[in-house]
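Allow me, if you will, to draw on your knowledge of protein folds for a short while. I have a record of one protein: its chain in single-letter code and its fold written as discrete structure tokens. Kindly check, if you would, that the fold set down in the tokens agrees with what the sequence suggests. Thank you for your consideration; the sequence and its tokens are set out here:
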Amino acid sequence: MKSQKESYLRVLLVLGIPAIIEQFLMTLVSYVDTAMVGSLGAGATAAVAINASSTWLINGVLSAVGVGYSVQVAFYAGAKDFEQVRAVVRQAVLAVVFFGLVIMAVGLAISGQLPVWLGAEPEILSDARAYIRIYMLAIPFQCSVAVFSAIFRCMGDTKTPMTLNAASNLINVVLNYFLIFETRPAGPITMPGAGLGVAGAAIATSISIATSGTLLLVIMYRRKSPYQVHLKENYKPDKFIIRKAFQLSVPVALERITMSSGQIFMTKMVSGLGTAALAANHVAVTAEGLSYMPATGISFAATTLVGQSLGAKNMARAKTYGKLSGWVGFALSTFMGALLFLFSQPLATIFSSDHAVINMAAAMLRIVAFAEPMFGVSIVLSGALRGAGDTRYPFFVGLFSMVGLRCVLAPIFIYGLGMGLEAVWIAMVIDLCVRGLLCIWRFGSGKWERYSAKLSE
């Protein structure tokens, strides 16, 4: 039994480690933007920060679309039904085109007012509008990244998304240097620059997203494998696959909308504390992303392995992978939480040059570090539950923890107790710890098992 568990652990890590690296690389795009824009001052950082909750909301919805199709891919891949996997992939192509264009159109229509609705100060409004408008143009490609990265992972290929995101980061960094800053001396040479500031960061990010989204789609069509699809095949909408994708993705979308709406509420509240607090909150949120990237990578592996095990009709293996991934997520997140606490000041310094912003952000990181172990468990076990088709429970947990706890406690702490930015982060700690406990209970109860039978219906 010990050797079997060791074998399972090796498989989990073989899939999980590239996914972890991918998450670090994806996060690096945001980090590079934040660090480079942060060198322009707190106002530029705030212009990006005010849009962060909106981009999280969009990315959350796109990720939900990816869950709807990738979980089906994992199930049929486990069952060795390659034709059905290809059918799901073709339907995913249609979904990417549809959702990408619709969300882009809606986003462009409201982008002028979005920063205003979120409470942007007049001095950052122009930059905030420019950033979100440019970002919206990349939404169809972002949809491709979200959906096909998830599909590749659920096929058991976590290296392709990792490699493409590495290339995307390189493009982003290079373009940032040329687009954000003015022409300037760099040693013996003169570095040309467009001097576009915040808009330059948005252009660089959008081009990098477009590159990775296009390449993922090209590889899906060009690479020889049992899962390869072709343009001349049948792309007529399949009611069975679309219905199953809808059942799987809607709870995930609602969960992400709930979380992002809560973040928007928090951003609105933080913006009332001043530009420095808003910038510090964004810097802290960006830096904190490092701590849960390992858990996110392991959660992708958990979704794949639980889904494939259930497709192979091996419930015992699915349970083992779920429990094992939970322990691995807990261990990694505990380690990352300790690093977050110990290196809070240097991390904050990476993303801002403003001393007041740095000190405030570092204090927030030390607060949230204590929640990282349970947050990591919630991330990983939510991934395992999704692999089993139980996408509703993570939504209800997110709804309760965000709306019932964080969004209630933070205003009480700020307006009732007269606290500052730390109120938002203390409320977050309570939210994340409760979330972890609820996910542990759910997976241990076995109530998720009944959802797995519905994947093949």
The CA atoms of residues 319 and 446 lie 9 Å apart. The chain has a mean pLDDT of 88. The longest helix spans residues 2-38. Residues 2-456 form one domain.
